[in-house]
């Protein structure tokens, strides 16, 4: 069951980037569609958890939910949705996968701990992958909005890394509250802020939002992407550990690249593919210590089972 849910989670997270692209290409307003997605997904999850008596309205009055909403939803998905007007879904997915590198650098800066040689190597390899990924825009034709979009997605991962580090402290602070409830609350805050951003920065065309492709994309992102995907993630965290579910970042970007090229005919150069793979290698190196601990724990469990027999 764990392996099945893990594969399903990777597939879900790998397809969300293409679903966003489909919705944006139909003319859906980026900030408005993102706001509706997270507001509705957060509300449904929060109501479900409240029905199970695992959520209370008082949680929504806590400033921590607002701050995590800024870091994990507003700061990440505002630039991502806007950028997918100009970049392919596969490129967006690969650039979004740089988050673990930024989290490592942020944690090292806060704790003032020295990084291992392997971790520094991973950061350098990941940075080289980003350069390879961006290189075609210089070698073929320079596209200003393409470059700005790539930088926007990377800046979104800075928000994500800060939000992730902060949310770990919030989870410890609210130990009696389900992580699913906390995630629902921050999605509601993030979705609300995205809707406010939309109100002041873009014109919403209702006819575009009612396009069958836009509606299908939105429903898929709400139900499958936000509700199912994140629920599976937290289920895997509970059943295994925080490291194992996070390895979706090694798989989903390559799924997104492949789906974008095969189903949506997105251009995929050899340099872009090489850059994507290089970034994934960098992420693996950055998380090498955690992966070794995960393998050691599994090996110890297998030994204990064998000894008991």
TrEMBL record:
Localization per Swiss-Prot or TrEMBL: Cell membrane
Residue span(s) of domain EamA: 6-134, 149-287
Membrane topology: Multi-pass membrane protein
One of the record's GO cellular component terms: plasma membrane
Lineage top rank: taxon: Bacteria
Keyword vocabulary terms for this entry: Cell membrane, Membrane, Plasmid, Transmembrane, Transmembrane helix
First and last residue of the signal peptide: none
Transmembrane segments: 7-24, 30-48, 60-80, 86-106, 118-139, 145-166, 187-206, 218-236, 248-264, 270-288
Family the UniProt entry places it in: Belongs to the EamA transporter family.
Protein name: EamA family transporter
Annotated source species: Priestia megaterium (Bacillus megaterium)
Upper lineage: Bacteria, Bacillati, Bacillota, Bacilli, Bacillales
């Amino acid at each position: 069951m764990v392996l099945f849910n893990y594969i399903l989670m990777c597939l879900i997270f790998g397809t969300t980037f293409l679903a966003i692209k489909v919705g944006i290409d139909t003319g859906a307003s980026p900030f408005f569609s993102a706001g509706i997605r997270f507001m509705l997904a957060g509300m449904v999850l929060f109501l479900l958890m409240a029905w199970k008596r695992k959520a209370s309205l008082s949680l929504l009055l806590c400033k921590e939910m607002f701050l995590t909403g800024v870091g994990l939803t507003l700061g990440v998905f505002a630039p991502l949705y806007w950028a997918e007007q100009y970049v392919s879904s596969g490129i967006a997915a690969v650039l979004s996968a740089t988050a673990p590198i930024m989290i490592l650098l942020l944690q090292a800066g806060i704790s003032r701990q020295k990084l291992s040689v392997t971790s520094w190597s991973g950061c350098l390899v990941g940075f080289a992958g980003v350069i390879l990924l961006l290189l075609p825009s210089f070698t073929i034709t320079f596209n200003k909005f393409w470059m700005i979009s790539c930088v926007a997605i990377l800046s979104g991962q800075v928000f994500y890394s800060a939000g992730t580090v902060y949310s770990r402290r919030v989870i410890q602070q609210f130990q009696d509250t389900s992580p699913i409830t906390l995630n629902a609350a921050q999605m509601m805050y993030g979705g609300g802020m995205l809707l406010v951003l939309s109100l002041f920065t873009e014109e919403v065309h209702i006819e575009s939002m009612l396009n069958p492709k836009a509606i299908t994309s939105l429903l898929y992102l709400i139900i499958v992407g936000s509700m199912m995907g994140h629920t599976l993630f937290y289920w895997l965290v509970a059943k295994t550990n925080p490291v194992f579910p996070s390895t979706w970042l090694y798989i989903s970007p390559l799924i997104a690249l492949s789906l974008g090229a095969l189903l949506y005919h997105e251009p995929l150069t050899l340099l872009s593919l090489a850059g994507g793979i290089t970034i994934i290698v960098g992420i693996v190196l950055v998380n090498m210590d955690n992966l070794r601990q995960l393998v050691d724990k599994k090996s110890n469990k297998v030994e204990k089972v064998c000894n008991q027999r």
